[in-house]
Write a structure and sequence with these properties.
With about 325 residues, the chain is an all-alpha fold. Helices cover about 75% and strands about 0% of the residues. The chain has one domain: Orthogonal Bundle (ABC transporter involved in vitamin B12 uptake, BtuC), CATH 1.10.3470. The strands form two sheets. A two-stranded antiparallel sheet has the order 1-4. It has a two-stranded antiparallel ribbon with strand order 2-3. The longest helix is centred in the C-terminal third of the chain and has 27 residues. Pfam families: BPD_transp_2.
Length: about 325
Amino acid sequence: MTIPEQNAPVHTAGAAEESRPSLSALLLDPSFWADWASVVGLVGLVIVFGISQPVFLSIANLQALLLAAAILVVLSIGQTFVVATAGIDLSLAAAVMLGAIILGLVDAAGYGIFLACVLAVAATSAVGFLNGALITAGRIPDFVVTLGTLSGVTGLGLILSGGEPIMVGSTFLLRLASGSFGPFGYPVWVAISAVLVAHIALYHTRFGVHLLATGGQVESASALGIRTNRVKIAAYTISGFCAGIAALLLVARIGSAEPQINTSLLLNSVAAVVLGGVSLFGGRASILGPAIGALMLTALVNGLTLLSVSAFYQPLAVGAIVVLAALIMRYQK
C-alpha cells in the first residue's frame, strides 16, 4: 500500500479551486440568472432610477415604496404556495375585493372593526378552501375553477355592496396605515412577518415538504402516503387567507372598500412569483424570491412614475420583464 505524500492535500485543494467556476463563467451561466433574476433586477432598477432621478433614493420615497409593496408581497406569498403545487389562483384579486366589502359592511353595521377584520379574512379563506375543494374533489383544472370563482366572487361583492364604495373610518385601520415602528410602517412589518412565517412553513415543517413533493410529482407523493388533496386544499386556503390580509391593508390604505377588482394585483402577484424563481410546474419554490420580485415590480412602477413616464407604458414594461424572466427560468437547475 502506498503512503500518500504530505503535500497531497495541497494538490487536492488546487484541484478544488480549479473546479470552481470563474466570475465570467458564472455570469454567462443562464441558471445563475434564473436563480437571481429578482435580486439582479431590483439592484439594477435601484441603480438606474437612483442615477436618473435622485429623489428615488430619498428616505421618504423608499418608505412610500415599501408601503406600496406590502400588499403585493403578501399576495405573492399566497400565490407562491399555490404555484408550488403546480396550480394557479386567478381569484386572488376578487377575493381581496370581497374581503374589503365584508369588512366595510360589518364595520358599518356597528359590529366593531375586530369582528369585521376576522369575518373578512374568514370569507377570503373560505374562497380559497372552495377553490381547493373543487379542484381536488371535482378533478377540475385549477385554471377553470379559479376563473369561475373570479367571476362568482366578483358578482357576490357587487351584490353585497350594491356597486357602491363603503367608507371605513376605523381608528385602528388609520393607525395601521399611517403608524410606524422603527424605520418601517406597520404594513411593512405585516409583510415582513408574513415572509418569515411562510418561510418557516415552507422549509421547516412537514407541510412544506409535502407541499413541494405534491407539486414535484403528485403520483409519487401519493405513493409515499402524502395526502395530496389535503395539501392542495391547504395551499389554496393559505392563498385566500393572504388575500384577506391584503384586503385589510388595502382598506386601511385607501379608507374605503371599493367594489372594483384591481386586476394588477392578480397579474403582479403571478409576475412576482415568476421573477422570484418559483417553478410554474411545481416542486420548486421560495418565499424571499417572490417578495423581492414584488419589491422589484413596485420599484419599477415607482421609478417610471418619477420619470413622468405615461401610465400606459408601465404595464408594457412589467409584461416585458415577466416574459424575459419566464424565458430565463427555462435554464433553472
